[in-house]
Amino acid sequence: MANRDKNKLSRRRFLKAGVAAGALSATALPLQATAADASMEKAAKLPFAITKLLNEVTLPDTKGARVVVVGGGWSGLAMAKYLKIHNPAFDVVLIDKRPEFISFPASNSWLADQVNLDFLTHSYIDAAKSHNYHFLNATVLGFDRESKKVFTSNGFINYDYMVLAPGIEYDYSRIGVDDPVAQMQLYNNFPGGFVNSSELITIKRKLNTFKGGTFILNVPNGEYRCTAAPYERACMAAAIFKKRRVKAKILLLDMNADIRIKKQGFEKAFSSLYADYINYLPSSEISGVDIDEKTVSTDFDDYSFDDAIIYPPVRASSLLEDAGIANMKTAQKIANTDPYKYHVIGDEYVYVTGDSRSQPFSKGGHTANSEAQYVAEVIAAHALGKEVRWRSPQTMCFSAVDINPLQAMSIITFYKFNKQNKEFEFDRTHMMEDWNSEGGQASLAWAEGMYRDMFYK
Amino acid sequence: MKAAIQHVLSGLLCLILSNAQAVEKITIQLDFIPDIEDGKTTFSVCARCHLPEAWGNTDGTYPQLAGQHVNVLIKQLLDIRNGTRRSSLMFPFVQERTIGGYQQLTNVVAYISTLPMNPMHSKGPWGKGTKEYQQGKKTYKQFCASCHGDNGKGNNELVYPKLQGQHFYYMSKQLGRIKSGLREVHPAMQAVVEELDLEQLDKAVNYASYFAVPKEDMAASKTWRNPDFK
Fold first, then answer.
1. Which residue, A311, A299, A312, is CA-closest to A257?
2. CB contact under 8 A, A452 and B48
């Protein structure tokens, strides 16, 4: 049971602090002339902000153990739902800083107007209501794992179990952009489209207003989010340019030696549909981007562009660092977790799932959903002192290659643990690389089914 | 081959007719001659997840569809279509707008019925000769055999699922779902699931998972791959 009254400020103390701070800052406002006044004002304002953060978030009181899920992406949403299914007594709180959900899977089809924004957009309120958990629209600021607290922009929450599913962040240093200001400028001018939904909206506008010339897209290396998506996006971008009859050349700079997934299907699309539009360049290790000159440097060449989508390699969310569990020596800054049970080594009450997980499973929606269904069962069993048998996540992945009608191909794969190498590897994989309109329809049915699972009854 | 569909069209008619007085339920039975070639095309969509052999997987996330009675398969598709059997991911795939009408449903189940069964389905943890196996046998004989048959063959005409060759973890998971109200089934089945606890149910399906699959129903080896989807 979470101790919800621990460290809670009394209402009287809170009001006193709040009113005092309010009164002081109001009178201090006209008196900002001197440095002394400014620092006085700062000192007077600070306690107000802090008291707000130190107040406990108001939630209905329930008797069951509280599980706080940090991050309402594909992992967190499935986690919250299936925790309640496996143990209806759990008091589940899902936290996300976004007010609504916009799906990244299927978003490439949206770029090319094959679905509308309503198809991708869903409500966290619906999700929480359908599956009997609480949604807290707040930003997580930090943790105290000793007293089992999560601090958010709305106050703190006590937890019995915590699941961290905060996803990924871009790691611009791995394409030679180290300066934080340069990173920010690069992000704002040429966003990658894999973290924040505003990036997608920008990308859609870019593709639909591009006047012609060279458009650079890239495929990152390492374990990036959604292996097939950069290739799929190149196809959708080319389809848009083709439809708009823009004289445009897409340079697809792949930081890998070859197409990472569905190679035959993508090669066929590049050559049969987009020979005039896509120039695929493998082994293009990006070593720098000059925003002013609009050039991308690789180990071999410099490429100038008129517009670009720069998708840098990724790392696990820095929230893992804030929780004190990230191993900063690993390329993806991942946590040291149990590969089967997902809990942090040494803390069986904190779990890491989704794209910030430590296992090398493909980062994507279906993987995260199937994994969360299993981990929710692990946590429910742990609360009863039991264990469940490990089962593999599944990676079901559709890629659209052509539009009107939408044509797509798919792959499904499972994983197994190789005891000799002590590594996870692919188990049975089934590819359907002959893209067609049945595949396109199936890709949308798949997305619809997944949204249904996460948001509706 | 002929597959019959009894559907809740009657429910719809009731709704239209139920202005004033209570009306009698009308059941419409429709017969279809399946087109297996067309079923193969439809199945290519199913195979994206269920894999071309429709053998399911050992951890129970997918059932073995190969070898199942056509009427049982049809009932599952219709139950998922109308929400009686909840499966979020399957739901959009079995809607008329996606898979097509009754004809397409019969085509695809007819195709599935041509597939040989998995020769290596997953069995429960309690082998023959264990106490749990014996307990499960007793429970099975008492509660399950009258419908599903002594050897788990089920019954196509009466829409009793075949249990032979079904993965243990799949059956166990479904019983858990029925028990917790996540899956609606025939009242007789519902009554049995309510009568027994999860441990008894697990032992009963453990016993069922050891039923021999007739050799002629099985693929020659576990490495057999469906040649229609090379």
1. A299
2. no
